[in-house]
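Reopening: C-alpha cells for the 3-hydroxy-3-carboxy-adipic acid complex, inputs below.
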Amino acid sequence: TKKLVQLTPTDVKEDILSKYPPKVARKRAKQIMINEATGSDSPPEILANVRTIPGIITMRGCTYAGCKGVIMGPTRDIVNITHGPIGCGFYSWLTRRNQTDPGPDGANYMPYCFSTDMQDQDIIFGGEKKLAAAIQEAYDLLHPKGICVFATCPVGLIGDDIHAVSRKMKEKFGDCNVFAFSCEGYKGVSQSAGHHIANNQVFTHLVGEEQKEQDGEFKINLLGEYNIGGDGFEIDRIFKKCGITCLSTFSGNSSYDQFARAHHADLNLVMCHRSINYVADMMETKYGIPWFKVNFISAKSAAKSLRKIGEYFGNQKLIDRIEEVIAEEMKDVEAALAAHKPHTQGKTAMLFVGGSRAHHYQDLFTELGMKTLSAGYEFAHRDDYEGRRVIPELVPDADSRNIEEIEVSADPELYNPRKSPEQIKAMEDSGFEFKDYDGMNEQMGNGTIVIDDLNQYEAEKLVELYKPDIFCAGIKEKYSIQKNGVPMLQLHSYDYGGPFAGFKGAINFYKTVDRLVSSKVWSYTEAPWQKSPELTGTFVWE
Ligand code: CFM
Ligand code: HCA
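Re-run output (same inputs, fresh job):
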C-alpha cells in the first residue's frame, strides 16, 4: 500500500530539520530548498560547495577520488600511480565501471592498480625515494607514454615533493611524460576540487603536445564523458554515423595521444559541465576553441544536442545527415516508449547524484512520463543548480582554495580561431547560446525539493515521507533504500547495466526503469528492526 503524502514541501523540510541540533539545522536549512525557480527572476539561492558538517554521514567522496578516479582514471595508456597507503589505490581500482577498448595498439593499464603502498617508515622518513623507485619500475615494465602520480592525504601532511620527483624522472627518461597531482583527499570539500586539479595539470602538461594537424571533418572534443557502462561508445557510434570527427574524449576510453591532440578541434562539447568546465575555458582562452553544453542523456536531449552541433557548423550536408540519423534512431526509441511508458507514466522518482546526473537523468524520466519529486547534487556548485547566469564572483567557491592557479595566455602563434570572434558574436546575436545553460532547479518545477549534499538520514527520511517509485543514487545509499521497500537504481555505475546515453542507451534505461518500478519485490521486504527496533537477544561469549 502506498503512503499518500498529505504534507506540504514546507512540512517535509521542517520534519527533516527538526531532528538536528539548532546550529546544524540552520546550516542545512540553506541546503534544503523548496524550489521556486520556474518563472521567477529571483528564486531563493541554494548553499552549495561548502564543507559537510562533521558527524553527518555524507554521500560525498574526496578530492583524490575526483582527480585520480574521475578525471584521469578512464585513460587507458597512462600509468596512474597512487602515492600513499594502499587503501586509496585499492578502493579506486576498477570501481567506476568506465569501460575501455584498448584499440589496435592494445595498451591498457586499467586492470592494474599501481601504488607506492606507503608504510609507517615512509611516513616518518619521507616517501620520495620510494616514489622514484615506483616510477622507475613502471617505466621499466611497461614503457608507457605517460606516468601520473597522485597524492593522498598523508603525502600532503609529510610534505613529499611529488612534483620534483616527477620532473626528475621525466628528465631521466626523456621519452615518457611524468607529472603529478597535489590532490590530497582533504583538499577542498568534495570530489570537485579534484576535478579542478586534474584539469589544470592535464592542460598544463599534456594538451597541445601533438603539433600535427588532424584529419577529419567537423572536428570536436567531447568533454566530461567518462564512458560509464559504455555511454561513450554509444555517443561515438552516433558521431560516426553523423560524420562528426571526435578527436578526443575527456576522458572516457581516452589515450595519451587523444589529450595531446585535443587542441586541433574546431569545437568543444561539454557534457558534464561540473567536472570539466575548467578545461573548456582554458582551451577557449589559449586556443580560441569555443564551447557549449550538450546532453546525450535521453533521446530528445541527444537529438537536440546533435541539431545544435549541426547549427554551429552551419553545413547543410551535416544538418541533413543529422536529421536522417535522428529519424532512423527515433523509430526504435518510439517503439520502446510505446512498450514501457504505460507502466511508468505518472510514477515518481528521486535523484541524488554527483554533479550533473541528478539533472541530466530527469530528461529520461520525463520521457517515461515520470515526475521528479526531489533531487540534488553531492558536490555541484551554485551554477549547476541555477544555471550559468549565476555571477561567479558571488558563488562561494571552495575549489579556489589551495589550488595552484595555472597561467593561461592567448599565444598568437597557437591562437587559431575556428570561428572568428565576429562570427561568434553574430551567432550569439541571432540567438545561438554558447555558454548559457539552464541549471537543474528551473527544469524541476516549483514545489519540488532540491537538496545539496544529501546525507544518509535525510535520504531515509525522504523515502519514508514520499515513498517514491524509484530512488537513484550510489552504492552507499543502495541497500538502505531497498531495505526501506523502494527500488533503487545506481546512476553512478548503472549497477551492472548500461549504457544509458544516446538513443540505444535511452531504450536500455526505459527497460531498466520499467522493470524496477513494475516489480513489487522491494515492497515485500521487512527488515527485522521494523518489527522490533531493539535487539532483545543475549550476547554470549563463546
Ligand atoms: Fe560528472 Fe561523472 Fe557526475 Fe562527476 Fe562522479 Fe561519475 Fe557522478 Mo559518480 S564526472 S559530476 S565526479 S557526470 S563519478 S561519471 S557518476 S559522482 S554525477
Ligand atoms: C567517486 C566515484 C563514484 C562513486 C559512486 C558511488 C562513481 O565519487 O569517487 O557512490 O556509488 O561514480 O564511481 O561517484
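Residues 316-344 form the longest helix (29 residues). The pocket of FE-MO-S cluster (ligand 1) is lined by residues 66, 70, 96, 191, 224, 226, 228, 272, 274-275, 353-357, 492 (CB under 6 Å). Marking as resolved unless the reporter disagrees.
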